[in-house]
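Model it.
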Amino acid sequence: MQLSRRAEAFLLVLAAALTLLVSALGEAKKKAPPPPPADLPGHVNYLAQQLPGVMLVDATSITDEIQKLVLADLQQWMADRTPSDVEVRRELEMAFSQLHYPLFGQAAAFAQSWKGQLVIGAGYSLGWTDYDRTNVIAIFTNKLGHSRLAAVTTFVPRTDLHYAFLQEPEGDAFRFFVYGSRLGKSQPRLTAILYSFDGQNLKSLWEAHDLYDGKMEVEKDEVVIRYLIEEEYTREQAHRRKPPRHQTVYKITPTGLEVQSEQQIPF
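Modeled.
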């Protein structure tokens, strides 16, 4: 009789444990996140929803996954067509079309003829606060109606994204500026990079970073950059005076930029 009671107690404990286990599995199944949507805008939005509250330095795994999705779509979409810069921009905007504030995806595209082919830039800024954003630029080449992905780079984070082009005859490399302004202080800060693309590889020839209230003009054979020095600006503003503005003129050379003159100009 004593053994039977022990067996009965054991069975009761086992039944209770199984009930708890089934209940826990049921709750876990209920709480499991739904799979990402099958469409590109939905999938991008599904991943981007994880970005708010994440510091830029910790967001790489999410932003890299979004980059893979977007570039895979572009490669498939562009493979057998010759799109204009407007069409590329619209395709990028479609990928980010389900994002809502504070999330955003801003497209920046170009298409330039070079050495009998078309060089296409497909870039975007992906952001989740007024300051935190990443910048990706994919370079495609197009010839005889076919496009291929040639290079990918990440422009400096926390800026917007713009392009400027050199007025030069066709050479061994296609050269262009990528530039953007970064918010976060009393004046935006300019960063600009001169890139060279030889049809296969993309490399930097010249860079300028965080120029306080910086502005850039690309002319026929020179580049003019005007900027403030932050310490001077802060000191002069404290005394209610206008600080000097600085101007650097660069000559465009086959290997990059060369300083021609530096001077102070009126504010």
